Amino acid sequence: MIMDQEKPYQNKNAINNAVRIPGRGFCVKMFYIKPIKYKDPIKRGQKLGTLSSLQKVSPGIQSHVHIQNCDLSDPTAYL
To answer: For residues 3 and 6, what is the distance between their CA atoms, to the nearest angstrom?
Structure first.
């Protein structure tokens, strides 16, 4: 389930958009996507959103999705 919108930065730039997705025993945040929705169940393989263009803010950076844990837990078991 997508739980909420996240704001990775304190400013209002074009890439300040992310979602928080908790699971069984873990939680991840996905940055640099424009989600289809912010608070709904999701299924494996379902489209979450579209990639944001990082070039609008940092012209030299390749657009990518940034995934990070919500806490300091070890994600190795899920890789």
So the answer is: 9
Nearest residue to 67 (alpha-carbon basis) of 8, 1, 4: 8
Summarised one tens digit per residue, pLDDT across range 13-30 is 767 888 888 877 788 889
Q: What is the pLDDT of residue 2?
A: 63
- CB distance 61 to 32 below 8 Å: no
Domains of the chain listed by start with CATH number: 4-73 (2.70.70.10)
CB 19 within 8 A of CB 33: yes
pTM (2 d.p.): 0.74
> How far apart are the C-alpha atoms of 18 and 65, rounded to whole Å?
10
What are the tokens at 73?
């837990």
In the structure, what pLDDT confidence band is assigned to residue 62 with cuts at 50, 70 and 90? Answer: very high
